[in-house]
Write a structure and sequence with these properties.
alpha/beta; 2,3-Dihydroxybiphenyl 1,2-Dioxygenase, domain 1; four-stranded mixed β-sheet; about 15% helix; globular
């Protein structure tokens, strides 16, 4: 196999870009519910059109798909269906406790593949997994006594 030269482009980060049905609801979920910070935004005619959100070293972008006009787009199915983004963090059970305290629905953490995993679903159905390394046995279920 021929050796392919390494890219000189300096790729630094992959950032998921979610098309959302209601950007205000999504911003509320990510910022108030999950603790993301809005660090960039595009506002046109007084309306938020796009934003860049960060949590720790992770980022994602949101943009509401236009319902009408030249750039109108209507998804053929559930918008987030089949999309999972995994966020690697220091303490997934702590993240679970934080978001639950803010009223966000999240699965109780369990151990899978050597990681604590808690799963959430955003307003459009995008699946979000927050994971952290652990030495706990596979299939261990989280309980406050383990915390």
């Amino acid at each position: 196999m021929d050796r392919i030269p390494r890219s000189q482009a300096g790729v630094k980060q992959a950032v998921p870009f979610f098309a959302v049905s209601d950007i205000e609801a999504s911003v509320q979920y990510y910022v108030k519910g999950l603790g993301f910070e809005m660090v960039r935004k595009w506002i046109e005619d007084g309306d938020l059109r796009w934003c860049w959100l960060e949590l720790g070293g992770a980022a994602l972008m949101l943009q509401e798909f236009p319902a009408d006009g030249q750039d109108a787009w209507t998804p053929s199915g559930t918008v987030g269906e089949g999309v999972t983004v995994c966020f690697i963090c220091e303490d997934a059970p702590a993240f679970y406790r934080e978001v639950k305290a803010r009223g966000i629905e999240a699965s109780p953490p369990f151990v899978g593949n050597g990681m604590w995993v808690t799963t959430l679903s955003d307003p459009d159905g995008y699946r979000l997994e927050f994971e952290s390394e652990t030495d706990a046995p596979e299939d261990t279920q989280f309980s406050e006594s383990l915390a």
